[in-house]
Amino acid sequence: MATTRTANAHWEGSLLEGSGRVSLDSSGLGTFEVTWASRAEDPNGRTSPEELIAAAHSSCFNMALSNGLAKAGNPPAALDTRADVTFQPGEGITGIVLTVRAQVPGMSAEDFQAAAEDAKANCPVSQALTGTTISLDAALV
Question: Which DSSP state fits 58?
């Protein structure tokens, strides 16, 4: 069954002087302030589209990797993934680096690397971002 999730954004003013907010409406988890400065300079307690993409990508990757590992008979004890989304004003998103550290009892480093590469290629957020270079740093701990 398909699901739809909803967020709303409101903006007032010009790009450089204006500000806005984004709300996570489906979950009701909150409303977050956003400005150009929080996107292109220091966050100063505000979010950016890139931070929201990083949150989506790291959680989607963990779900895909967990599922792949479990299907292969090696459910993970723990997966910790960071997504670093780089934004260059004037160019846009120039790359994403996924860094995963995992505890997967009984799995070789080579098999884990293959599973992580598969999750990177096949998680729905990675697939939605196919126009962006996505790098992976995967290791067992």
Answer: H
